[in-house]
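Key idea: predict the complex, not the pieces.
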Amino acid sequence: MTKEDIIKPENVVYKKPALMNDNPMHYCPGCSHGVVHKLVAEVIEEMEMTDKTVGVSPVGCAVFAYNYLDIDWQEAAHGRAPAVATAIKRLMPDKLVFTYQGDGDLACIGTAESIHALNRGEHITIIFINNAIYGMTGGQMAPTTLVGMKTATCPYGRDVDLHGHPLRITELAAGLNGTAYVTRQSVHNVAAIGKAKKAIRKAFENSMNGKGSSLVEIVSTCNSGWKMSPEKANKWMEENMFAYYPLGDLKDTIEG
Amino acid sequence: MAKITGATVVDTDRCKGCNLCVVACPLNVLELAPKEVNKKGYHFAREAVADRCTGCASCAIVCPDGCITVYKVKVDE
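Result:
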């Protein structure tokens, strides 16, 4: 059997989701953002919510998310995505509203907005990309940077006495009464990607069923910021990040 | 016995040569082109050996840029 016999539309087992357009992404090679974009697109397609979804993009690497997924988007001021999403969801309750934020946007400048939106139990989903560094601005220390991790602004490693402890936003969110579903996932291999997709689906369904707010943290790599190859960054994440940011559901108030 | 045969098609223009698909492939089907580059200057991924792919789609699932399409057929022998 020749390759031409196999490559036919009826034999497709996997292709890029239709919601993801052909614009070349500005992300660095091997960046986790692309995988999460794909998962979001796949889940929206499977839920048949293409025309009813509004994404709120942050400031950070994902600022151009609206260039890649063909759904409605709103760009928010730095850190204010949950506040914008609150307004959109309250005015249009039949829309699927989610924010897509990095650790600089959500865990630093937007901590107040995020915590309060989650605590109010707004029926939105927050997708939180945690790569422990400020990727877009060139690899500076973030609130989530691990102790001892070297970045442009802590070249000798993060020092607890000087910089404090890394902030675990997801644990914080799990303690709030308004949250329905709080989970931490990763996208470093096929199995993890499958679990992350299920988590995003569950969070989106909770939002549409009016169950409260959901937070899906994706522990991610920033191979450019970490100054590693994408492959090595995945390994480094498994060895170092998962010890401080363990994967799994932290809170699940929905049965099934 | 039915045999499963697969094939991958890489959108070489969009590929950034991150190597994640090469690492994810359980059968070492893919490689980065050692000399050729695409219009952006990346060593793009391609099928190194024909007939070994089973269409498991691991490469396409981990591809951050959605460059890989996977096909699969059952062949009766």
